[in-house]
Amino acid sequence: MTLRAGLLGVGMMGRHHARVLREIDGIDLVAIADPGGDPHGVAGDLEILPDIDALIAAGIDIAVVAVPTQYHEDAALKLAAAGVHTLVEKPIAHSIDAGQRMVDAFTSAGLVGAVGHIERFNPAVQELRRRIEAGDLGAVYQVVTRRQGPFPARIADVGVGKDLASHDVDLTAWVVQSDYETVFAQTAFKSGREHEDMITITGRTASGVIVNNIVNWLSPMKERLTVVTGEKGAFVADTSTGDLTFYANGTFPLEWESVSSFRGVSEGDVTRYAFAKREPLRVEHEAFRDAVLGHETDVVTMAQGLRTLAVVEAALDSARSNAVVVL
C-alpha cells in the first residue's frame, strides 16, 4: 500500500521533509501547501497550494505539518477532522491547552498523531537506548545533556527552552523510559530578545534518575552531548557526529601512584561502537509510516510531545518563580 502524503510548509525544515518523503518506500508526496510560496524550490512538478484546506482537498492519507508552532493546532485539528494521520514538527503546540486539544482530536478519531522530536531518531541515541535496554549499563543513575551553540536567526517565536531544550527532555525521558517528575530551572536573557536564550533544567524522573539539561544559544562552539551514567559505567552519545562511546567501570586498580592520585578512579575499557548511521529524519519518517500501517514503532506520540511541552513549561515557570515544580 502506498500512502498519499501532503506537506504543509516548505521552509527551513519543510524542505528536508519534502526530500525525505520523496525518498521513502511506501509514500508518495502528492501535495504541498505553503502560503509563503516555495522559497527553497522544492516543489518540483507539484503546484504550491495556498493553505491546509487545499492540502486536504488533494486527497491525502498522511500529512506533515512544518509551519511555525502557533499554526500547529489549527492545521492539526482540520487534518484530524478529515481523517488524516499527521506528523507535526516539535514542539507540539504553542500552549498546553492547544496540545491537549490535538491529542484528544487524534485519539478520538483513532488516528496516528506524532510529533517530530527528531533527536530521538539520532543513530547514537537509538543505539544508546538499545544498549541500556539490553542491560549494558545496569541501573541508570544520571543523565546529563549539553546542547550549546550560536544563535539561529530563523527562530523568532519561542525561546531556547521550547526550541532546543525540548529535544533533550524528549530524548532523556525516552532513553531512561521514565517521565520527569520534578524540575528546577534557571534562565537568562542575554541577547536582548523577549525569550530566554539560556536555560539549565535540573530534575528527577519518576524512576529516580537525576537529570541535568544545559542548553543555550550563546556559545561560540556547537555541542550536542548526552552522558548517561549508571551501575557499570557511562555512555557518551554525541548527536552531532552520531558517535556512541562506553566508558566501563574499572576492574584493575592503577598501581602507578602518581596517575592514580590524579585520576582518582580505576579505569576500565573504553569502547566506541560501530553501527549504521542513518539520517534521523528518514528513520523518523519510517517510524511514522509504520505506525500508520499499524506496526509498533518508536514514533513520538502527541501524548509524549505534550508531556515534553509540559516539562518545558514547568521549567520556565520554575525559572520565573525560583521554585521547584512537581509535575
From TrEMBL:
Limits of the GFO/IDH/MocA-like oxidoreductase domain: 125-235
Keyword check for NAD: yes
Keywords assigned: NAD
Source organism, top-level taxon: Bacteria
Cited InterPro entries: Gfo/Idh/MocA-like_OxRdtase_N, Gfo/Idh/MocA_Oxidoreductases, GFO_IDH_MocA-like_dom, NAD(P)-bd_dom_sf
GO terms for MF: nucleotide binding
Domain Gfo/Idh/MocA-like oxidoreductase N-terminal: from-to ranges: 4-117
Keyword Cytoplasm on entry: no
Pfam families found in the cross-reference section: GFO_IDH_MocA, GFO_IDH_MocA_C3
PANTHER family linked: BILIVERDIN REDUCTASE A (PTHR43377)
Name listed for the protein in its UniProt record: Predicted dehydrogenase
